[in-house]
# Entry
Amino acid sequence: MARVAVVGAGLGGLAAAARLAALGHEVTVLEQAAEVGGKLGWFSRDGHGFDTGPSLLTLPQLYRDLFTATGAALDDVLDLVPLDPAAELRFPDGTRLRMPGRRADVPAALDAALGAGVGAQWAALMRRAEDMWRVAEEPFLRSPLAGAATLARLARNPADVATIAPWQTLRGLGSRYLSDPHLRTVLDRYATYSGSDPRRAPAVLATVAHAEQEFGSWYVRGGLHRLGLAVAERAQARGAVLRTSSPVAQVLLEGDRACGVRLASGETVRADVVVAAGDATALYRDLLPADRRTRAVRGALARTTPSLSGFVLLLALRGRTPGLAHHTVLFPEDYDAEFDAVFGGRPVADPTVYVSAPDDPATRPDDDSESWFVLVNAPRHDPAGGVDWTAPGLADAYAERVLDVLARRGLDVRDRLTWCVVRTPADLERDTGSVGGSIYGTSSNGARAAFLRPANASPVPGLFLVGGSAHPGGGLPLVALSAEIVAGLVGPA
# Structure
């Protein structure tokens, strides 16, 4: 039995803690915040409730596997609801597309909204994405990074390399398969699922669209945050100890090996294994010494582009919006200008607006009200070289801009607004420890970005990384896989 200290109680840390406790280890989870969940948060006021992180779950089987491995059935604990449509997509020319939740229904919906033949093009692209998924899943997504050995696994078959096409961008893939500009915009959006720019992100991100349509989009009744609470309960049921309001100030080393952590209070927690579940950049910058052991990783991180962040409005509204989907996406006139601004360190003048409005009594005080989570892509908080989101008046002024954009695109809620809470990238950084509020740590911009992402096994023996800023990446499915990988690396007691 090893003593394991897990730094951070986001979903990755909780999932790793549950798996390691089920393997027989003595696990302690140390979380800086007063509550568990990390980016999978929840805000409530006056009967209104909001998920403040992910708003849908894909690949729920990965969490069913997690719960099975830790002694429970997911569906006995949570009520998963399939979303159909998965989202309503609205374009600046007035075109609307209600994207079905089931893959078989998508081509017909595309033909009806965008014209005959468009659905067949998308279907052909999804067949390619399915092939990409088959090639990448086992040797990359479900396996730890191993430098050149990982590349060798992926390159063992030239046909597989051609399928993945690591030299091609997501934008380039869309241009090859899709003639309709609306549909190319739909594909571009999947780059934002990893905080990336479709003009620089690899074509393999088309697998995100495949997974969403093949395995469905799901909502957890009561809010997605309940998934984090349920995983925390699994960890505790297997014996893990959860300590909130316990920020870690340093990972302790003895010789060349991790031997525990020191809390900000000065308390030392000894451990045989440390699992870092927070932001990888913060780990290597703030919690570890800058010496030969970490030089290569810090250099790799310096060569990556941080992921985009998000600017959020939590809107408490009077009345109901007829026909409103669970997710609504309002695209701008110039999508490229949005990516230019975000990765150029500027707030977006005319952003894509994402509205999540679950039809769930748990999110509203009564049936004549709504609670909207409104998100726009935003540059990270970077007072030294980009946007200082704490600058006086900036957040409030930008919130008004977002409300104006909503109104121009047909969702004017200003006369129904009871109150609005604004959350900026600076708030995300403060609340979760994510450097600059980058949602996914590093982006997938660049053909080699995935291989520059910090590995689950650090160069310091006994120190492992889990969560969205480590391999294999961000998003609820990949976070679950990172926990599975780490548990396999540590092994049973």
